[in-house]
TrEMBL record:
Family from the record: Belongs to the MsrA Met sulfoxide reductase family.
EC id: 1.8.4.11
Source superkingdom: Bacteria
Peptide methionine sulphoxide reductase MsrA domain ranges (all copies): 31-183
InterPro entries cross-referenced by the UniProt entry: Met_Sox_Rdtase_MsrA_dom, Met_Sox_Rdtase_MsrA_sf
One Pfam entry name: PMSR
Name this protein carries in UniProt: Peptide methionine sulfoxide reductase MsrA
Keyword field: Oxidoreductase
PANTHER family per UniProt: PEPTIDE METHIONINE SULFOXIDE REDUCTASE, PEPTIDE METHIONINE SULFOXIDE REDUCTASE MSRA 2
Active site: C37
EC class of the enzyme, as a word: oxidoreductase
Organism placement in taxonomy: Bacteria, Pseudomonadati, Bacteroidota, Cytophagia, Cytophagales
Length: 206
């Protein structure tokens, strides 16, 4: 199951092409993270000033062009992920890391996020360069030392290989379906936590 509901339930929702990579990538950088259900993770990064777009999808596995059902079967190696397209002149990679580790999810939960259980919900920070790897590892060390969480961070630090966008109905799901039960009870509290912690970083300050 993805985001704590069956695939059949998810696909009865009206499909939308909301979300998607920018058509013009000039001047943009790209970062990829896995932090549990991608609905709230996508929304978190979408609200961050300097982010052009966040796309829900799958990364970290070996199966090409996986489907939602395949990823949910736990046989692909993929995690539900979000690819972030951002303007480095407006928001730094370090800020993205701070949001990921302190606002977007709980990085101390192993192979789960709240009610979502399985390796497809694991926490992963994908790096594209040695510098990004160093920044990720330094951030993990700093957050662990701060005592922000009672348990140590279990986020995997993995070299980026490939990102496969999820099906259309997953893109922009948080905004399109505010009355959906999972959004109200699981996703909204996560996004609210992020908004409170990073209120000075939002596109639209509360």
């Amino acid at each position: 199951m993805g985001c704590a509901q069956s695939s059949s339930d998810a696909q009865t929702v009206v499909r939308s092409t909301a979300g998607g990579a920018p058509t013009n990538l000039q001047g943009l950088a790209v970062a990829t993270f896995a932090g549990g259900c991608f609905w709230s993770c996508e929304e978190t990064f979408e609200e961050l000033r300097g982010v052009r777009a966040a796309v829900s999808g799958y990364s970290g596995g070996t199966v090409a062009k996986p489907s939602y059902e395949q990823v949910g079967s736990e046989n692909t190696g993929h995690a539900e992920s979000v690819q972030v397209y951002y303007d480095p002149k407006q928001v730094s990679y370090q800020t993205l890391l701070d949001v990921f580790f302190l606002g977007a999810h709980n990085p101390t939960e192993l192979n789960r996020q709240g009610p979502d259980v399985g390796p497809q919900y694991r926490s992963v920070a994908f790096y594209r360069t040695p510098k990004e790897k160093q920044e990720i590892e330094a951030t993990i060390k700093r957050v662990n030392a701060s005592g922000h969480y009672p348990d140590p961070i279990v986020t995997q630090v993995v070299a980026f290989r490939q990102f496969w966008p999820a099906e259309d109905y997953h893109q922009g799901f948080y905004r399109l379906h505010p009355d959906q039960g999972y959004i109200q009870h699981v996703s909204e509290p996560k996004v609210a936590k992020f908004q409170k912690a990073f209120k000075d970083k939002l596109k639209n300050p509360l």
